[in-house]
Amino acid sequence: MTPLLSSAQGVTLIGGGAVSDADLAQATALAPAVMAADSGSERALAAGLMPLAVAGDFDSLSELVRARVPADRLHHIAEQDTTDFEKCLSRIAAPFVVAVGFAGPRHDHLLANLTTLTRLRRPPCLLLAGTDVMIAAPPRLALELPAGTRVSLYPLGRVSGESRGLRWPISGLVFEPAGRVGTSNAALGGAVELALDGPCILILPRRHLADAVAALTGG
User: Fold this and answer.
1) What DSSP state is assigned to residue 47?
2) Claim: this prediction has a pTM higher than 0.90
3) CATH architecture of 9-130
4) Per residue in 146-162, pLDDT tens?
5) Residues 6 or more apart from 219 whose CB is under 8 A from it?
């Protein structure tokens, strides 16, 4: 699929859900290139950010956005088989994406977006959601976390694996959405290493967004 936005830097992807100034500040500090999904473009403009691209089905694109964003940056994608989040994420070529405005208030949207995270692994995407950052855990991941840091694993299918550096090791366990889940584990302090064999969402406190970016991008 031809990218609508190619960037050597991280991309902040803004959705139409609730987005705070703190969300935008934290995201754009790491990912200065900006793309918006449909009505997320209005939130971007309100914050003084001009999107490099806006994509979606445009069912809620305002006339203000049409008037202010250059026409060649507006990309109408009419098909209804995917969410606006997926329409955008699948058309970004960048080292990583930080997504804001995709976690509420509608929880059906959040669940659909978590499924998209596990299906589209490139570019790596980190979803800010309240006090958390959520990522689709790759098959192997290592990151440095202080002792006591909350580390939650939520399976979106059957998942087993190995861990190092967690208070409650996951070796020998099987996680499933309707069975055992791995919420509210904790780092022992130092390196946390995970090896997982299925689709799983890793949830960390959002203050560790930069640590998660480094772990996903190798630096």
Assistant:
1) T
2) yes
3) 3-Layer(aba) Sandwich (3.40)
4) 999 999 999 999 999 99
5) none
